[in-house]
Write a structure and sequence with these properties.
By secondary structure, this protein is an all-alpha fold. The chain has 2 helices and no strands.
C-alpha cells in the first residue's frame, strides 16, 4: 500500500510540474509524437517486407 501511495504521489507531482512548465510539456509531447511516428513507420516497413518476400 505504501508503494502505491508513493507512486501516485510521484505521478501527481510530475503532472503538476508539466502543467506549470510549458517548455517541458512541449518537449514531452514532441518526444511522444516522435515515438508514435517511428512505430508507425516501422510497421509500414514490416508490412512492405512481408508482401515482398
Amino acid at each position: 500500500m505504501a508503494t502505491n501511495k508513493a507512486m501516485m504521489t510521484t505521478l501527481a507531482l510530475g503532472a503538476a510540474y508539466l502543467l506549470r512548465n510549458e517548455k517541458s510539456r512541449t518537449k514531452l509531447m514532441s518526444q511522444f509524437k516522435a515515438m508514435g511516428g517511428s512505430s508507425k513507420s516501422k510497421t509500414a516497413e514490416q508490412q512492405k517486407s512481408l508482401t515482398l518476400g
